[in-house]
Amino acid sequence: MKIKRFLAKNMRDAIRMVREEQGPDAVILSNHRVAGGVEVVAATDYDAALIQQATRRSAPPEPPPETPKPTRSEDSRPVATPAPIATPAAPELQQLRRELGGMKRMLETQMAGMAWREIREHPQKLHALQTMVNLGIEPRLAREIVAELPGTADAERARFLPLGLLSRRIPVASADPIQDGGVIALVGPTGVGKTTTIAKLAARYAEMHGTRDLALVTTDHFRVGAQEQLFTYGRLLGVPVQTAGNADELRTVLARLADRKLVLIDTAGIGPRDAKLQAQLGAMGSAGAALKSWLVLSANSHAADLDDVIRRYAKARPVACVITKLDETLRIGGALSAVIRHRLPVAYGCDGQQVPEDIEPGRANSLVLRAMQLARMTPARIDDATLALQFGAVHVAQ
Ligand SMILES: Nc1nc2c(ncn2[C@@H]2O[C@H](COP(=O)(O)OP(=O)(O)O)[C@@H](O)[C@H]2O)c(=O)[nH]1
Ligand SMILES: [Mg+2]
To answer: What's the sign of the alpha-carbon dihedral 80, 86, 89, 90?
Structure first.
């Protein structure tokens, strides 16, 4: 197996060079734009003798081994394909698979190394990558942000530009959206803070507009004491609380509350894998187009779990989210990555159990600032080897 890197003015020239040097069976494994042209990595000759031997045998057909896809040239013609493998015998096939597996791993290491060298040549990019990883921003997003950075900038700009780029990506809802009124249901898994957030939102609205146009509804009839929690808040705030156990009841209750400017619906805390979830989301869907759902996400959840929650609650068509428990984690980058990735506008952020104080409208800048402040409390010095690994892995995966 021979792997070689070619530098050329353009893709056409690079392909010509590959053909001339490695022959028609060469496989283009990657191509990149570099200063002054393109860089192509091509491979050939992955044990030609073995392939020839294998094709001569007449063994029962087996699926061909996974081969790296040839990259298409600029004029979109395939450059070359590996020699066809007809009916290789099992031992040779296994050997071939091992050979190709080894080639893939070697390539991945090579590519990771190349990407890493590119970053290391620009200390400002390296610093930005460290900052992003330290905030808990997922590697793929961190890489996209770093790629947006110019190669050189003055020191001050270089420090804040990555944070600005991160902040620009955070989607936020209109400032203080409950003040616009509407029928809003808070959905999300058990214990993320839906009921507490409803109380905070109700108190916030009541502070500005009084309680006359406000009503609370609970559909949470699954958990003992769940309704009682909302009734307690309702009593404290002087706001009526209605209950709705199914889709029909919800429609009836909402019709009765049609004259209220703001109706906040507290839903059951159902685990994202619980079958009851679909029934509940279905009930909300049939409650009418006026009902908007907000997904409640807890900042102290793992990024992969947040991703899972967002996918499972997609049926509720959330138009925004509330990020709770910002006070319970030192890394809110996971939550920020999730809302960026799923383009879910942040309506509010909550940072404590106190009703009504611990809530504020979602603002991209303050979320980034908070992420910075929290990360600074326990700065994790991410060493070069870890960064190289993380960054390289992401690069190869794409
Ligand atoms: N630290 C912290 N705790 C919160 C926050 N929001 C809610 N909680 C707490 O989380 C727990 C579950 O809240 P609850 O509103 O019952 O969650 P629900 O099951 O989604 O309705 C309660 O102990 C709340 O006081 C927050 O922003 N920060
Ligand atoms: Mg609740």
So the answer is: positive
Q: Identify the domain containing residue 139 by its residue range.
A: 123-170+379-397
In a domain, 113, yes or no: no
Extended beta strands in 125-274, E state: 182-187, 214-218, 241-243, 262-266
Please, which residues have CB within 8 angstroms of residue 238's CB and are 6 or more apart in sequence? 206, 211
Q: How many angstroms separate the alpha carbon of residue 358 from the centre of ligand 1?
A: 11
Last residue in a domain, options 75, 106, 137: 106
Q: What is the reported pLDDT for 13?
A: 85
- pLDDT tens, residue by residue, 86-127: 445 577 777 777 777 777 776 666 655 556 666 667 778 888
How much distance in Å is there from the Cα of 193 to the middle of ligand 2?
Answer: 7
For residue 339, give Cα distances in angstroms to 158, 306, 360.
25, 9, 17
Provide the residues around ligand 2 (an ion) whose CB is within 5 A: 194-195, 269
Of ligand 1's listed atoms, the one at least distance from the Cα of 229 is 16
Decide: 390 in ligand 1 pocket, CB within 6 A: no
In this structure, the answer to whether residues 149 and 193 fall within a common structural domain is no
pLDDT tens-digit map of 286-321? 666 688 999 999 999 988 899 999 998 888 889 999
Distance 226 CA to ligand 2 centre (A): 6
Ligand number with the minimum distance to the CA of 359: 1
Q: How far is the CA of 268 from the centre of ligand 2 (A)?
A: 6
Domain presence at residue 117 = no
Q: Work out how many domains the chain is built from and give that number.
A: 3
- Judged against a pLDDT cut of 80, whether residue 142 lies above it is answered with yes
- Alpha helices in 121-193, H assignment, sequence order: 123-135, 139-148, 155-169
Of all protein residues, the one whose alpha carbon is nearest to atom 13 of ligand 1 is 193
Residues 132 and 100 in one domain: no
Token pair in block for residue 179: 């003040």
Do 225 and 260 lie in a common domain? yes
Claim to verify: residue 83 and residue 49 sit in the same structural domain: yes
pLDDT score, position 59: 41
Give dist(CA 21, CA 99) in Å, integer. Answer: 22
| pLDDT tens track for 206-241 | 999 999 999 999 987 666 567 788 999 999 999 999
In the numeric block, which tokens belong to residue 151? 């190669």
Is the beta carbon of 192 within 6 A of some atom in ligand 1? yes
Residues 231 and 278 occupy one common structural domain: yes
